[in-house]
Amino acid sequence: MGAPRSFTVAPDGQRVLFLRSSSGTDRSNALWLFDTAEVTEHLLADPAQLDDADVVSEAELARRERVRERASGITAYAVDDSARRVAFTLSGELFVSEPETGLVRRLPAQYPAADPRPDGSGVRVAYTSRGELRVIGFDGSGDRALAEPEHERVQWGSAEFVAAEEMNRARGYWWSPDGSTILAARVDESEVARWNLADPADPARAPRTMAYPAAGEANADVTLELLRVDDARFGERLPVRWDRGSHPYLVEVHWSAHGRPLLAVQSRDQRSQLVLAVDPETGDTTELHRDTDPHWIEIKTGWPAWTPDGRLVRIAALDGAYRLLVDGTDWTGAELQVRAVLDVGPHDILVAASERDPTQSHVYRVTESGARRLSEEAGVHGARRGGPVTVLSSSGLRQLHTTVRVLREDTPIGEIASLAEPSTITPRVELLRLGARELCSALLLPHGHRPEHGRLPVLLDPYGGPQAQRVLRKQQGYLTPQWFAEQGFAVLVTDGRGTGGRGPEWDRAIAGDFAGAPLHDQVDALHACAAERTDLDLDRVGIRGWSFGGYLAALAVLRRPDVFHAAVAGAPVCDFRLYDTHYTERYLGDPNRNPETYAANSLLEMAPELRRDLMLVHGTVDDNVVFAHSLRLSEALTAAGRPHTLLPLPGVTHMPTSESKSENLLLLQLDFLRRALGLPARSPEGSGSTD
User: How does DSSP classify residue 452?
Assistant: First the structure.
């Protein structure tokens, strides 16, 4: 809250658009402009002046849940090619803005409107509503349905669940460069199982039904069609053809003026991924490249794409590194682990990558001659670019908030201000490399603690799951661990195998086994740290985590009660047969073919082994890791006669967003851990602040 985000740089470099709320206590984002010539900020669209209802449709709630959006107000926007026309929604209403004139107006679009996107020239705006893909003039004229669903389980122009949740593809349609055509996804969920999410705290309310593609079960049927938008051929449809039987997953679409539309499509087992070029006149596709892997193809942001001179840009796992390839030529070599393509320019490509230290991610300008680092300070950096102007976002351990600098030809010309609140907690972070595998870890101790003060109980606080690093060189991720440290713990955060940043072999070390390497690495890091620090008390060790971290926490007390004495498992995946296809099958395979793998990784199978204190915490309307996970584990524990604590969070989805609930949830976890580890109860006035 209060921090700038979601930057767009105009191609001429004259304007930077971004979102920001008014303060560190305001959730509602407004649309802002940074003028690079005057080096000034201007408020373009304030939700408080445009809409006071703050009504969020179910479709918008689902979108926000997929991208873990906790803000309100303007949470997303899209621009035309020149960034002179902007579209966004508020409370399901469609708004447009012209940054140069200050105009903001509501369009008479069908309600509720979602995901509006202007065409390249800003003449029309496409949007989705009630399963339809619609088009309206930027002036509000001619609102028409371009594609309508045949029945209620078909959606046009939207991303299906696994695309948004697991592939980082949040959109489902793409404008042609000339604005005459839209390439749109048709999502048919007829064969997908319907799950009911009910809130037991409100029995009068009907359950919300959703299509959930569980591992081994049917996915949504995703097809693509070219839809003509120009007046002479409005609504004409042309199917895009590829072998969807062998490659059913639509991973990404790229359509620019530099070449034919590009598709990245994957096989169901994710061991094969194709880059296809689409003929926009016939719908036929041509295979440009094929990647295969004995385990899976890792999805990286920003590819495939064309360079302005028509060369194919992609990221590939080759000889121990994720490399940037341009028409098959390696531009980054073995020294960089490329994380994402940020921008493709006429003379270079902007990427995010790590070198030897996976806790850092920097921005590089890459050419065929090599890579030059744009970001200087140690930390985690990102960038957006337009013409000669680059917006560089930098986070580090020296300050809490991200610094956003605006550069022209690499020379700083100003900063975009953060209005976020200062923290009452300053993380005391010591970054370590522990054990034979040099596991990246962060140790946080109470301020003022010294070894002679005595031994501290230890709290492990991992995520530990695939491609999700916790140990990064930036303060933001350490506020809650430091809060627990101030309550008298030595908090250890470790990224084990599979968590990313260290190359393809590291990522694939967890293939087929969530219960092995991730837990083994947590134990190794704990023992290696204790061998160096005599003030860590291994007779009092707790572990807490959320989502995969919740699975790992519960797994720890079930599998290694000799090491772990208490666990708090938040929204844990207890049975991977209840989790989605794309994520679960990537790592564990098809449960219909490999049931023994799923049984070996299931917490339900381990329930009779519980000998330690375990708290399960779960939102009752979680649509990602459904509440059934914790309920089934609780049932299995009860059947085995194993005492445990189950804390349901009524009306809460996968991530608690209420300030009061979040704070009290931390206090409840603290009390549980204190009791389980035999520590003195906290005093109400001594609990510290969770700000």
Answer: G
- The first and second tokens of residue 526, run together, are 């704990």
Strand-pair partners of 312: 306
Structure tokens at 212: 């959930």
Task: Tell me the C-alpha distance between 502 and 322, whole Å.
Answer: 9
Say if residues 167 and 251 touch (Cβ distance below 8 Å).
yes
Whether the model clears a pTM of 0.90, i.e. scores above it, the answer is yes
Cis peptide leading into 304, omega within 30 of 0?
yes
State which amino acid sits at residue 319: D
Quote the pLDDT of residue 690.
38
Tokens matching residue 50: 């445009």
Q: pLDDT digits over 209-245, tens only?
A: 999 999 999 999 999 999 999 988 999 999 999 999 9
Separation of CA 407 from chain center: 27
Q: Which helix (H) or strand (E) holds 479?
A: helix 479-486
DSSP H helical ranges for 39-92? 47-50, 58-66
**Whole-angstrom distance, CA of residue 576 vs CA of residue 307:** 40
Q: If 0-12 CB within 10 Å is exposed, 13-18 middle and 19+ buried, where does residue 248 land? A: middle
Phi–psi pair at 555, nearest 5 degrees:
-60, -40
431 to 44, 358, 528: CA distances (angstroms): 41, 12, 14
Question: What pLDDT, on the 0 to 100 scale, is given for residue 661?
Answer: 77
Residues in the chain, pLDDT under 70:
52-53, 658-660, 684-691
Q: Which of 83, 103, 106 has the alpha carbon at shortest distance from 95? A: 106
* Separation CA 308–CA 289 (nearest Å): 19
What's the token pair of residue 108? 């008479």
Among 244, 230, 256, CA closest to 285 = 244
